[in-house]
Amino acid sequence: MLEFKNVTFIYHSKEGETTAVEKLNFKIEKGQFVAVIGPSGCGKTTILSLAAGLLTPSYGEVIKGGGEFGYMLQRDALFPWRTVKDNIFLPLEIKKRNTLENRENAIKLAKKYGLGDFLNKTPKELSGGMRQRVALIRTLAAGPEILLLDEPFSALDYQTRLEVCDDVQAIIKNERKTALLVTHDISEAIALSDKVIVLSTRPATVVAEHDINFGGNVPKHRRESPEFASTFETLRKELGI
Amino acid sequence: MKNNAYSAQHALYLKKIKRNKIFINVTRFAILILFLGIWELCASLKIIDPFITSSPSRVIKTIGELAVGGTLFYHIGITLFETLLGFIIAVVAGYTAAILLWRSQTAKKIAEPYIVVLNSLPKIALGPLIIIWIGTGYSAIIFMTVLVSIIVCIMNTLAGFSSVDPTMLTLMKSMGASKTTTLIKLLIPASLPSLMNTLKVAVGLAWIGSIMGEYIVSRAGLGYLIVYGGQVFKLDLVMTATFILCLLAGGMYAIISLLEKRLTKLY
What we know:
Chain A contains eight helices and nine strands. Helices cover 37% and strands 26% of the residues of chain A.
């Protein structure tokens, strides 16, 4: 579905050049939820930009198996001057697919995930968790195959964070989407994903890969299961913290 | 909140807010009345010379005379026309220029020193040139008005564009939005509050421009009345024109404030 083959990316600035990622190799299968964890500033966002094609690798290649990308960011970035409904329509408008059918599908999706009563509200009237859910539905509205999640929960307070994180994972699994999540939160990565990729400090390269399959696919069960702590420890050591 | 069952404490709180609002309004009005009253009193008791300072009653009388003579609305109309047209041209042209400069960072860098110089130059220095180039009609005054207010429109609009949330820009980019789409869907609506501020500043500057223009070249308008009144020592006329200017400038500002309240409710 998505494969990084020996990907190196170098940022150029007046002060010099920085190698953000170096010889990065990993693969994501269709329907997989993959988390990439790494220390702060190790080039996680660069990986997403490379995957989305916003950046082109300096060396190596990113192989995509078709389908579009949907991006979900650290903050919801909902437009305050638009209603929830019109925020959800935004990608349709931009991708010039703003047909009645597509709009109806987006509305259906929003209703399916509990936003029915909020469609005509403005973002200001919503709680932080609800706003992030709107942001997810907005991402899904254009019908992407792969979701790229850039620490989408880091701006939320702890309690909301747990809720929204489970919520988002459930929606993504339910819609059978492939997801690539970058985060620096180890427990979030373990709770949500099928595979965790551990990165080194900058320039980022893959330190280890772990398939996670205990506790079913439910984040809550994962957190409660006995393997959670040991996996956490392993990942923590690999991150070197 | 449609909750009518307020607690006594909340009712007291609301009452306090209301009382404070009334106090502010009453005091505002009282200061004006007091000022006008003292002015009138001093003038009629000859503490100050009403020939030089005029007085509220003389201003009212002058307004009456001008209104009867039919020239009042003529002068007001001319100045209003010059100011409004200059203001509109400055805002539209300034906004357009800002969009063009935003589209090309290189163009922005090239234009920067010119904008800075033009911004700090006292526009009245260009008076003689404007008269020679454009003539002594309305167009010269409108040109002056545009000149005085356009730079602020360009700079504020650019500042408004660059203060748009970077996350929102990333979002647009991730959806593959073109520069034009980003401008229309994001920058223009997102910078609406900043546009409203720009309008407020620009309208004040437009008044400066039009009155300054009238000082230099005009044969009619409120600025002309002030200059003419000063030259023939009819200070009642000067005060009257100034008073009307206050009303008009205040009124235009209020209209923009109202518009702002309406349009930026969601932000």
